[in-house]
Amino acid sequence: MSNPRLLLVEDNELNRDMLSRRLKRAGFDALIAEDGAKALDRIESEKPDLVLLDMNLPVVDGWTVCKRVRANSEVAKTPIIALTAHAMPEDRDKALAAGCDDYATKPIDFPALLEKIRRLLETRGPAL
């Protein structure tokens, strides 16, 4: 069985590098997108098992990415975890309202993020 494929969408190179290395060490295949437009392309072409989505992205923001994914029947069920520095309750509500399945604030609590990833992958079941 192959490793679950996660798409990490993060415009900050240091965050992207650190998170992708930690995800790989945790047993995931980590795909990368640096902005929202690339994220949409990769989600449609690669069909990752889960998306870690920074909400404040260049080109197309995370809110829009999430709404477009949810509107695309081919990838609409893909679990999405919002990653954001905004930690107010209304920010979490906004991410969930945009279609995200869960929410993690920066700086990332990696063990908690892994738990969220594993829970969503178990809930989703095998990819079609």
Number of domains: 1
- Which CATH architecture would you pick? 3-Layer(aba) Sandwich
CATH class bucket: Alpha Beta
Strand order of the largest sheet: 2-1-3-4-5
Report the total helices: 5
Structure, explained:
The chain is built from five helices and five strands; from the N terminus they run βαβαβαβαβα. With 128 residues, it is an alpha/beta fold. The longest helix has 15 residues, at 110-124. 31% of the residues are buried. The model has no long low-confidence stretch (mean pLDDT 93).
SSE map:
Blueprint: E1 5-9, H1 13-25, E2 29-33, H2 36-46, E3 50-54, H3 62-71, E4 80-84, H4 89-98, E5 102-105, H5 110-124
Helix pairs in contact: 2-3
Keywords: Phosphoprotein, Two-component regulatory system
Domain Response regulatory: 5-121
Protein name: Response regulator
